[in-house]
Design a protein that fits this description.
209 residues; alpha/beta; seven-stranded mixed sheet; three-stranded parallel sheet; 6 helices; 14 strands; 31% helix; globular; binds uracil
């Protein structure tokens, strides 16, 4: 079973509460998500492997440590996942970025892929999939399954809010993928929205409502 990491840092919880409020402007919602994703990136990258490197300080030679291996890949699930990118790239500026777009077929209710673009050499990379809302879990599970076809070294999933239903779907489908979130809310409503939630993350990031 994968681990569910709930990031309880006071700064994360404070900013999340500001974001949930219905009268937060598009500007402040976007800025808070940007700040939160930087804070969450610290937690998500905590176990990145280090390698020893010899460097010269102005005074002498020393052995420092730097991140080992190929660059990380952030994979945004379109479109709301894009709200995580700038904040995370601030901490890992060398990361590569992939995108996956899925829509729900109205007849079958199954996710259908309409866009998929990843960096090269995925089999040598660690992947962090980002999407602010883990609701039913169907898109997230489908996105991770598609990325697994490229056999990356590891995959983590990062969201701002999760519903218990979405966590269960992800953990059943992908027991090897740890989930990072700022909160696990109560449940989904009949339209698949998280309660109490924060509404439609894409609309609130892009001001499309
Ligand atoms: N997607 C959202 O943007 N919000 C929800 O509450 C659920 C899915």
């Amino acid at each position: 079973m994968s681990t569910l990491h709930v990031i309880t840092h006071p700064l994360v919880q404070h900013k999340l509460t500001l974001m949930r409020q219905k009268d937060a402007s598009t500007n402040s919602f976007r800025r808070l998500l940007d700040e939160l994703s930087t804070l969450m990136a610290y937690e998500v990258t905590r176990d990145m492997p280090l390698q020893d490197v010899q460097i010269e300080t102005p005074l002498e030679t020393m052995t420092g440590q730097m991140i080992d291996g190929k660059k990380l890949v952030l994979v945004s699930i379109l479109r709301a996942g894009d709200g995580f990118l700038d904040g995370m790239l601030r901490v890992v500026p060398g990361a590569r970025v992939g995108h996956i777009g899925l829509y729900r077929d109205p007849a079958t209710l199954q996710p259908v892929e309409y866009y998929f673009k990843m960096p090269s050499e995925m089999s040598e990379r660690d992947v962090v999939v980002v999407d602010p809302m883990l609701a039913t879990g169907n898109s997230a599970a489908a996105a991770v399954a598609r990325i697994k076809q490229l056999k990356p070294k590891s995959i983590k999933f990062v969201c701002l809010l999760a519903a218990p239903e979405g966590v269960a779907v992800m953990q059943a489908a992908h027991p090897d993928v740890d989930i990072y979130t700022a909160a696990v809310d109560r449940c989904l409503n009949d339209h698949g929205y998280i309660l109490p939630g924060l509404g439609d993350a894409g609309d609130r990031i892009f001001g499309t409502k």
